[in-house]
Each structure stands twice: as C-alpha cells, then as structure tokens.
Specification:
By secondary structure, the protein is an all-beta fold. Helices cover 0% and strands 51% of the residues. The protein contains no helices and eleven strands.
Length: 127
C-alpha cells in the first residue's frame, strides 16, 4: 500500500497563493497517476487536478483552470499543487490521490479511479 502525506495548507487572504505538496512512500507503484481533490464543509469531495506519470498530461476542473498548476517530481515521489489567485470558495480540505497505471500518459479524474489517498490538508481563504 502506498502512503501519501499532504503538506502546505494554511490560512491565506483572497488573491493570495499557496503551494501544496504530497509525498508518496511505502510500496510505491512503478508508474502511477496522481490527482488532487477537495472537500468543502457540507459538500461532497470534488476533483481539482490530475497529472499523468510522465507529467506531460494534466487536467483541471473548470473552477481552478488558469489559477492552479499541478506538477510532479518522480525522483522525489512528490506531486505539487500551486494555487494562485485564491478565492474564499477554494476553502476546503485538499487530498492527494494515486493509482497505478500501465501507461505513462494516463490520468484519472474520478474518486473511484484512485486507490491510495492522503489524510488531507486544510486550506482556508479569507475574504
């Protein structure tokens, strides 16, 4: 089982930036796609961004497109989420997720596709 640990959350004013990181450890897959999800109070968890093993393919939810950037460093087994121009509606617990893949260009965008999850990190954006 792969372990995922998120970091980098915190409190920021609207318009500010935060950079989330997720470190994978344990029995890491030989190739794995990764993604970020978030869950706001009283709402269901929703997809934010995804990245293929190669890092060359990324996909974003419409709500964050142009503001968030997902990237990865396979040598360090980490994935990052750079969040700019943050809005109060971005307030949520952010989770990273991973799933093995046979193709370096694959990515996933639904919760059911991912088998490994982190514990989450809180992001709060004040107005």
């Amino acid at each position: 089982q792969m372990q995922l640990v998120e970091s980098g959350g915190g409190l920021v004013q609207a318009g500010g930036s935060l950079r989330l990181s997720c470190a994978a450890s344990g029995r890491t897959y030989s190739m794995y796609a990764m993604g970020w999800f978030r869950q706001a109070p009283g709402k269901e968890r929703e997809f934010v961004a995804a990245i293929s093993w190669s890092g060359g393919i990324t996909y974003y939810a419409d709500s964050v497109k142009g503001r968030f950037t997902i990237s990865r460093d396979n040598a360090k087994n980490t994935v990052n989420l750079q969040m700019n121009s943050l809005k109060p509606e971005d307030t949520a617990v952010y989770y990273c997720a991973a799933e093995s893949t046979d193709y370096s260009g694959s990515y996933f965008i639904t919760e059911a596709d991912f088998g490994s999850w982190g514990q989450g990190t809180q992001v709060t954006v004040s107005s």
